[in-house]
Amino acid sequence: MQDVLKVGIAGLGTVGASVVRLIAKRDNRLAEAAGRPIRVTAVSARSRRKDRGIDLSGARWVDDPVSLAADPEIDVFVELMGGAEDPAKAAVETALGHGKAVVTANKALLAAHGPALAKKAEAKGVALNFEAAVAGGIPVIKTLRESLLGNTIERVYGILNGTCNYILTRMAEEGIAFEECLKDAQRLGYAEADPTFDVDGFDTAHKLSLLTSLAFGTLVDTKGISIEGIRSIKPVDLRMAEELGYRVKLLGVAQRTADGVEQRVHPTFIPKDEAIAQVNGVLNAVAIDADAVDLTLVGPGAGGDATASAVIADIVDVARGHRTAPFIRPVSALTKPSRAPMTRHEGGYYIRLEVVDKPGTAARIASRMAQNNISLESIVQRRAGPVRGGTDPAAAAAPAPVVLITYATTEAAVRRALKAMDTDGILLGAPQVIRIERN
Ligand SMILES: NC(=O)C1=CN([C@@H]2O[C@H](COP(=O)(O)OP(=O)(O)OC[C@H]3O[C@@H](n4cnc5c(N)ncnc54)[C@H](O)[C@@H]3O)[C@@H](O)[C@H]2O)C=CC1
Ligand SMILES: N[C@@H](CC=O)C(=O)O
Ligand code: NA
Q: Binding residues for NADP(+), per the UniProt record (predicted)?
């Protein structure tokens, strides 16, 4: 058996603590799989005294994560601190600069600096592995890097944020308020240090940017992503979705179009009978449409052990000496992405309107849609009424929303129709517009 692989870990929070615990627990099995023992020999985090419920007696404490990255006594640097800038960035650069393999779960860092870091890794001939950075425990990076190389990929999309899926699922199934669901997701260790990254769609966008690069051979391009989060989703939207045969999910979608690669993150209506609509709670799903194979991977997208599972697989790859270019092709071979503008997006739409209650309003809605060549699959008006068990007279008197489901149209046409209705003075508030994704 070869020498021990000495692992230095910076960050001992939800993920870092699970990695330490699972490496100790699976000691023998990992050594057999990797052909050499794997030991955590040095660690770094903010607080040395904190009780994390893990045994750190075999690991040296290093106060500064960047010094740990340069430590000659470690073979692989595992970055689990988070954040797109220093100290995570400086630490990863330092480790790569010293010719050490890096394993990270940090999608914010890779979305901001992935190609530059990959270039450094390539120059030194070391691994930069980031399976945990996209869809947590689902082995999607390995799938793209290794298993689908014989394919041309047309679309990659999925539920990429466990926190949002957990919130939307509990809001829909249990009628629990958004804030309470978010607090539970934080308590369970799913949310980012700053949960606005989760609920405003940025975390999904970071992950999507990495998937896009791997799937389409393009440079990571977060600026080209249209991003909407889940804060605007109201209980009425979840109720209407259920009634009309849909579920609401926050999706990240990257697809090849005639105009280039369209990248978008937004809440989405998905027909209830589609597999991805049934992926609930903290589970993530990634669907890949390719010429030879279509597949969907489902699994836990967040949480300590699920994420640690992916981190450990990456460490074992380093121990075995397996290495691929971080983004499959060398960075010099990645192309500049041609962006497909969102206004050209084609698909169906759910539109919820609060409208003035006077004769002619429905006719005006219908004519504005027709003028923009938008065909309606259904139009529904429901008295809002009081919330179940509620006594709020304002809620009871609230205007009834009009809900439209369109057939396939363009984003530009929908925007034009809604602008015209606004000019007509029939709208009482901003319309809710949610795109529909069909398989
Ligand atoms: N929690 C999850 O379910 C998942 C997290 N990730 C990613 O894994 C990474 C870690 O996430 P968590 O473990 O949830 O975070 P956490 O907040 O629970 O832990 C962060 C750890 O890093 C240390 N740290 C943070 N800033 C530091 C600094 N400036 N200097 C020294 N130490 C510092 C903290 O002391 C703590 O030990 C992040 O990049 C996150 O995006 C990825 C997939 C899932
Ligand atoms: N906050 C993220 C953690 C995993 O990447 C999520 O909720 O998915
Ligand atoms: Na993963």
A: 10-17
